[in-house]
Amino acid sequence: MVSPTGFWMRGTALGIAALLTSGCFACSASRPAPQPVSAPPAKPSTVTATSNVPGQGLDLQALIGLTKQAKDAETLERLLNQPGSINNLDLDEDGNVDYVRVQEYGGGTTKNFSFVALLNDGQEQEVANLVIEQTPGQSEATVQVQGHPAVYGPNVYYSAALPIATALFLAWALTPRPAFYVSPYGFGAFPAYYRPYAPVPVATYRTTVTNYTRNVPVQRSSAPPVRSLPPSPNAGKVAPSFRQPLTQPGQTQRQFQQRDDNRPVAAGGFGQGPAAQRSNPASAPPARPAAPPPSASRPTAPPPVSRPAPPAAARPTAPPPSRNFNTRGRRN
């Protein structure tokens, strides 16, 4: 017989157990169900399209704006050949921006500078000429840039009237000097500060150009504002192996590009070279089938032809054995 005290204690224990059990079920029911974790969506890969027009790799308006930052021709050449500059030319499409050399020439009332691109095969291509003319007694000077016809087309001129006091390059160029500046560098003999760099996309280059042309009132014309110019000593430097499509190619360049029409066109940089082809396998040329091994390419000799044996009647019969008799008449 169970005492009242024991019965009460056992009932209390059962009640506590039931309460804990219901609480656990309630907690488990209130917890949210685990959700599957999904990976973030992959960002679509974008390919920045660039232009293959050679003249867009060296903006002539920005070249006028660069004269406000350079203090002399040597500094101008250095600014042209450093990453992030206005020089984005890759005429030979080797994946590197071409080094541009500066040479002063001429004389008289104008100061003249020729810009020549050095290609990786040792050839040279003049790309532009810059002319500075000051009217006596004026505080401004006319700065004119002409693109080479093979690169920019015929009669492409840009000009601007700049105060000499705000352009160090103009003040240096118009000051009498004992000698002209002629760059001592060439292909394979670059300055110590120079490091080759790859062309940048069009959007990046356009932003760079804007920084040099924002406050420069440049005008374009089809006739030179500055006339009676001396001929450029580099006018005849036209690279035959100019790989980019030219605006007005010479005969040698035209013949080279006709022979080179079957090359694939890539999609990177002003110079569309091997780096862009690696990034876009669809533009690469189809692989050539492997040549068969030398042993397989040799013709094998035909098997010998077995001739049927002649019939028995046609076979020659052997002569009968000769008989030998000795001196006594006996046959051996």
UniProtKB/TrEMBL annotation:
Q: Does the keyword Transmembrane apply?
A: no
The scientific name of the source species is: Chloracidobacterium validum
Low complexity: compositionally biased ranges: 247-256, 273-282
Q: What is this protein called?
A: Lipoprotein
Compositional bias annotation for Pro residues: 33-43, 283-322
Please provide the record's keywords in A-Z order: Signal
Q: Where is this region: Disordered?
A: 31-52, 216-332
Which positions make up the signal peptide?
1-26
Keyword Ion transport assigned to the entry: answer is: no
